[in-house]
Amino acid sequence: xxxxxxxxxxxxxxxxxxxxxxxxxxxxxxxxxxxxxxxxxxxxxxxxxxxxxxxxxxxxxxxxxxxx
Length: 68
Hints:
The chain contains 3 helices and no strands. The mean pLDDT is about 85. By secondary structure, it is an all-alpha fold. It starts with 13 loop residues before the first helix and ends in a 17-residue tail after the last helix. It has helices at about 15-25, 30-35, 40-50. The chain has a domain at about 15-55.
């Protein structure tokens, strides 16, 4: 990816926000989201916080089996 493809300093478009929400819902790691959108990890965290998007990983244990 060339430097001209980066979105640093540019405003977030509704398409960028929709992509952030979609990737976060799919439990995509923050670094990968940043690479796909062309933003830094800190920009992803900031925008997710402002838009109310949770970046916390979902429970990966099947059928809610936890340690007893």
